[in-house]
Specification:
heterodimer; A: mainly alpha; B: mainly alpha; 8 helices; globular
Chain lengths: 308, 218
């Protein structure tokens, strides 16, 4: 039964990802006083790319070919393991924070490898930027998840969600501060301004994408949208599990699904409003912002240690 | 509802609000945040009063409300208005404010290690808050060291003072009113004197930058 839930929620996130991406694009257009494209535009783009033939760069090897499916596949796996509609992991071994963190690090690693595998010189610079964001934000995310794990007494995301949902996670303030830090870290991971622009594949920022075409580009584009949803869901699943089903009864699951979609929509709306009210930072200055996240994350650790 | 965990949660709020005072971009925002922080302090005093059953603490919280939530921020805002465009009050701090959050976290941890060896019967349940109150001394010091604007350095003093107030309430909840009057009036007069000094300096030197003011000596 829970396996079905896992598969369904992965399918749900993959099918919804282009829609959410379209909604954020529409919001950006409205905030720029433009009419903007349809919110279904991402589906059209993906369908068009899927029909195109694939062109490979001369000199690129197996890594370039493996990157798109691994990039998309790892995020789908993470999506299947998160406690989204239930306050328990549908597949327990996929719901461990260590597994989740590694599954989120693997696409970044492959992305960076793919960028140096390409013959173009700009792609490598884009890969460096991607890695830099990872280096700056992942320690905070790990620290925050560590705090949540200690407070809940388990590294399993389902048990953590349950402990937070039933307000049994012990140092209360530590969890709240960790939630704030996690929201910030997840925002940076989502690849939004001022840190990154996920759609900027023609620029240096998402440089590795310049080397891809056809179905590979479609897979990576879909992967980037799925990544945004998965990272937002990770935050929602651990720190906002309220409303998620506590039992596997069909009605509870339905309520859990509706509340999850509602929470996800709110989080994505807030993220897109923030994104459109800031300017893009030069990558040299990224560290200034991430220091703040590190600070809040370490404050939550200190609160955990002193027990408030 | 009124128990030691509530005191500790309010203590955590003290740390968060004092960090916001340090991080605030403008002097005006810092004054309002300081007022909010003092409100948390009043909450700590009142909840401690409920927990320990000490009536003195209620009078303390009332006087703290008048002096710290209302009077001190009002004096600071008045000073800011007096300075006006005479000098630039909102100078950026010396240290990247984002890094000062990590610094505050380290300070709180060090203070917790320091107070963990204190074995006083009154401090058993409220050790986290005791650590917080001790940490306020260092947060105030941080504020004084990293801020270039002498107006913002006043907030450092105010934060230290709030910390000493909480420490006193935690360790001596039955202390007579006289002690408390000493602490409260101390804060008011010090802030008045500092505010007058800042205003005079701004009027004379047209700057609030501590680095520039160093050249005035002699």
């Amino acid at each position: 039964m829970t396996i079905i839930v896992a598969i369904l929620q992965a399918v749900l996130l993959v099918t919804l990802a282009p829609l959410f991406s379209g909604i954020t694009r529409k919001i950006r257009a409205k905030m720029h006083s433009r009419k903007g494209t349809s919110i279904m535009q991402d589906y059209y783009d993906l369908a068009k790319l899927w029909r195109r033939c694939e062109v490979k760069e001369g000199g690129s090897g197996i890594i370039s070919r493996l990157t798109p499916p691994i990039f998309l596949g790892s995020f789908i796996l993470v999506a299947a393991g998160l406690p989204l509609v239930m306050q328990a992991c549908p597949v327990p071994f996929l719901g461990d924070i260590i597994t989740v963190l590694y599954l989120m690090a693997l696409p970044r690693f492959m992305f960076a490898l793919g960028s140096i595998d390409s013959a173009g010189s700009y792609t490598a610079i884009g890969g460096v930027r991607e890695l830099l964001v990872g280096v700056l934000v992942e320690p905070s995310l790990i620290l925050v998840l560590f705090v949540a794990a200690i407070a809940a007494g388990s590294t399993n995301l389902g048990i953590m969600a349950n402990a937070v949902g039933t307000l049994q996670a012990y140092p209360f303030v530590a969890i709240v501060v960790a939630g704030v830090a996690c929201a910030m870290a997840c925002y940076i991971e989502m690849g939004k301004l001022p840190f990154d622009l996920a759609e900027a594949e023609q620029e240096i920022q998402e440089g590795p994408l310049a080397a891809y075409s056809g179905p590979s580009l479609a897979m990576i584009k879909l992967g980037v949208s799925v990544k945004q949803l998965v990272v937002a869901s990770l935050f929602v699943a651990i720190f906002l599990p309220f409303g998620a089903a506590t039992t596997a009864a069909p009605l509870d699951l339905l309520v859990g699904l509706v509340s999850f979609l509602f929470k996800l929509l709110i989080v994505m709306l807030i993220a897109s409003v923030i994104e459109n009210s800031v300017m893009r930072a030069r990558y040299k200055y990224l560290g200034r912002y991430t220091w703040f996240v590190v600070g809040i994350a370490s404050l939550s650790l200190v609160f955990l240690v002193i027990g408030i | 509802m009124f128990s030691y965990p509530l005191v500790n949660v309010l203590g955590a709020c003290l740390i968060i609000t004092s960090m916001m005072v340090v991080l605030a971009r403008t002097g005006r925002a810092a004054a309002f945040l300081y007022s909010f922080q003092s409100l948390m302090l009043v909450g700590v005093l009142a909840s401690l009063g409920f927990v320990t059953g000490s009536t003195e603490l209620f009078t303390w919280s009332a006087t703290a409300f008048v002096t710290k939530v209302v009077l001190v921020p009002a004096i600071l805002l008045f000073t800011l208005k007096k300075i006006g465009k005479d000098a630039q009050a909102d100078l950026p701090p010396k240290l990247n404010p984002m890094k000062s959050v990590a610094l505050v976290a380290v300070e709180v941890f060090v203070c917790f290690v320091a107070v963990s060896s204190i074995d006083l019967p009154t401090a058993l349940e409220v050790k986290p808050t005791l650590a917080v109150s001790l940490a306020h001394f260092f947060i105030g010091l941080t504020c004084i060291v990293i801020q270039r604007s002498i107006f913002r350095q006043i907030f450092g003093y105010c934060l230290m003072e709030n910390g000493s107030h909480v420490t006193l309430a935690l360790l001596a909840p039955q202390a007579p009113e006289l002690v408390e009057i000493g602490v409260a009036t101390d804060a008011i007069f010090a802030v008045v004197i500092l505010a007058v000094l800042v205003w005079r300096m701004a009027h004379y030197a047209h700057t609030l930058d501590a680095d520039d003011l160093c050249e005035l000596k002699g």
